[in-house]
Each structure stands twice: as C-alpha cells, then as structure tokens.
Amino acid sequence: MENRRRVVVTGIGAVSPLGLTAPESWKNALEGRPGIGKITLFDTVDCPVQIAGEVKGFDVTKPLPTPVRPRPSEEPVTVAANPKDARKIGRFSHFAMVAAIEAYADSGLDKHRGPSGADGASVPSVDATRMGVNIGVGMGGLPEIEDVHNDFLAKGYRRITPFFITQSIPNLASGMVSIQLDLRGPNLCNTTACTSSAHSIGESMWQIRRGDADVMLAGGSEAVVCKLGIGGFASMRALSTRNDSPETASRPYDEGRDGFVMGEGAAVLVLEEYEHAKKRGAKIYGEVLGYGLSADAFHITTPSPEGEGGGRAMDAALKDAGITGKDIDYVNAHGTSTPAGDAEEARAISKRVDAKKAHVSSTKSMTGHLLGAAGAIEAVFSIMACKEGKIPPTINVEKLDPACAALGLDFTLGRSVTKPVKYAMSNSFGFGGSNASLIFAKI
C-alpha cells in the first residue's frame, strides 16, 4: 500500500434538491433543510405519489459564475450548454454538465491547460489525454423517452426527434462533459442502479491508482421525476405516499417510514493523483482511501438478511483503506427510508463500527433518493464532513424504529454534529443486489 498512487479530491460540484451548487447543498444539509415538495415537473392528477425532491430554478443555459477555458486557443466556456445544444441532450446530462463544470472550476485545473499553462506562466501543465470522466447514471433519459413515445403514438414516425437517442442514452452525460472540458482520457459510464455513481467514483479511483489517468471527473446524475419514473416505483410500493406532508415524507430509521422519496440531481468530484495535485499547488478536500463492492446474490429488490452483502462491501472498502471499522468517525448510510433496507444496513454497520465513536446519518432524509446520483451527492457530503469536521443530520425521525434503536448507533437525529472526522464511510446499494462502499479520509 505504501507505494500505490494516492487519490485525492481537488474539486466538487453539485446540483441537488438542496441547492444549485455544492456549497449551497452542503450548507442546507448541515442545517437540516428538507428539499422535498410537491411535484411540479408533471401533472400528478391520478398519480398515487405526488411528492419528490426536485431541482428548482435550474437553467443549463444560464451564464456560468466562473467561465472556464479548457482549450486555451479557443473562446472560454461561458454556459454549460447553449439553447441549441441543450435540446439535443436530456435533463440528466444538463445536471451533469453544470455539476462537472463547477467541480472543474473549483479544482483550479483550468489555469494549467495548454503547453505551459493557460496563462503562459511557469506553472505545470496538465495533459488532456491523462484526464478522464466517469458519470454514473441509473436510468438515463426516461422523461425524454416518455415524451418521444407520446409524440410517436399521436403523430407517427415522422415526429420522432432526431435527438431522441442523444437525449436518452446514459453515457451522454460523460460524453458531454468530456467534450465540453476537453477530457481525452478514459470516458466511462457506470449503470448499476442506485450504486452507479459510487461505482463511478471507486472505479475512477482505481484508474488513477493503476496509472491509466492522473485526473478523473467522477460522480453521477439522474433526472427521472416523470410519470413513468414515479409511476413505476409507486407500482412497486417502494415510494412514500405521504403526499400531505412532503417535507417529512423521507424518514430513514423512523418507525413509521413507508418508502423512499424520489430525488434528482447530479454531483461530481475531481479525483486527482496526490503528487500531481501537490505539484500544481491544488487545494485538497481529502483523500479517497478505500473502495469495496459486492453482490447480495439474494433477491431482485430486497437486501440480503442482516445486510450481509452490503457488509462485505464495507469490509472490502476498509481492507482497501488499510483501516478497521473502529476507525470510522462517520457513516453516510444508504438509508433510503424503506422498511426493510434501513434496518438491514444498520445491523451491518453496527457490526463494524464503534457505536460509542461513530455517527451515522442518512442525508436522503433531506435530498430524497437521487438513484444513480445518490452515491455522488453523498460522497460530497462525506468528504466535506472530513474537511470541516461537521456531520449532517438525519431529519424527520419522530420515533426511532426499535430494531434500529437496539443497535446502539447514534443516527444523528435532527441536528448536525461538530467533531473531528478523520475517516468517513459512504454506502450505496442498488436493485439486483449491487453494493458499494467508499472510504474518505481527512488530509
């Protein structure tokens, strides 16, 4: 382990139900503000579920707060996408582009583009062929598929937009980020349900460790708050039906929880080889220290008993990080607010961490479940917990589930906590029994 390439986080970006930037999303998470409300993206008449964590006030064509110039010989990028290009891609790609550009600008990489740096000064340059992207997406352009299908049924083949495919395929999020920011290294998209973006971050870490890249923009994006998306999960009885109280509907670990709340958004981390980051004087949020993955091999939607599969992912991540569960200060749990999933994961966590030391929270109580982007936004919260020594709360717990209470874990109920966080774990689990765990460390 001593000789392996270390991987650090040098930039973050986010578009979430809690805010249109990473700092805004983090601030509102610490304050315990719910980002869930009545659905406005479609008419919910006759829909059994009428609540979601929507991204409000978003416009992909809005001027960037910080223009970037990834190609020094060309004009700077002033918008994530102009109106003409925006209609060629789906909402999930819009989210990914804005979050990625924010993370890229935050990293300070822009001034190092070109033969000797974009400003011509004696600063180290970065090689575009050593910079890559991996944006995990769970379902892709489902709202766009829905809209195009409606047009097809009403008006036939001639009304299918020529942009249908580019609007809907999941890897276009990574593709558009690569094109806009001139990232010519690995270009990937993990699609593993609700584990997608955690896998994207972990796999990107491994790419840097192996020497396949020096920089990876890694994260996830999702935008499926639409009739088919909400209707499909509702028909499975997976979603909360607390339509009369959206803000309190997502309630992980609460005895009365009745399902998860759909969310949407994107988050991207700039992962960078440690010496590469040090050489250019980058600010460093923290280190991606460990990554583990596993399969439940149990059931198509239900987690394995006692969280056995997820527990093995945690064990693998801890081993990869070279620490034990007793070292963990904070766990950002998968914690979706489903009756089975919360308790099983909590049991697995309790077998690994020191209940007197570690805090556990589910930020899905505020964001809702961002599906393929969940691991990414929760990675942002985990790395910020390490950097700032602040732990976001679990909100909306009126009566702790006795099965969870018996474990003795501190679920950080209703308030944020300030304490040193040297090591944080972030868990993501998905349909099909897909599991991932990430370990972040303070530097």
Question: What do you see in this structure?
Answer:
The protein contains 14 helices and 16 strands. The protein is α/β, with parallel strands linked by helices and 443 residues long. It folds into 2 domains: 279 residues, 3-Layer(aba) Sandwich (Peroxisomal Thiolase, Chain A, domain 1); 152 residues, Peroxisomal Thiolase, Chain A, domain 1 (3-Layer(aba) Sandwich), CATH 3.40.47. The strands form 4 sheets. Strands 7-6-8-9-1-10-16-15-11-12 form a 10-stranded mixed sheet, with helices on both faces. The protein has a two-stranded antiparallel ribbon with strand order 2-3. The two termini are 17 Å apart.
How would you sum up this structure in a few lines?
Helices cover 31% and strands 19% of the residues.
Q: What is the makeup of the main sheet? A: 10 strands, mixed
And the CATH topology of the largest domain? Peroxisomal Thiolase, Chain A, domain 1
As a percent range, the share of strand residues is 15-25%
Q: How many structural domains does the protein architecture include?
A: 2
Walk across the major sheet and give the strand order. Answer: 7-6-8-9-1-10-16-15-11-12
Helix content: 25-40%
Structural class: alpha/beta
Rg, please? 21 Å
CATH homology group of the largest domain: Thiolase/Chalcone synthase
What is the correct CATH architecture of the largest domain? 3-Layer(aba) Sandwich
In N-to-C order, the SSE pattern is EHEEEEHHEHHHEHEHEHEHEHEHHEHEEE
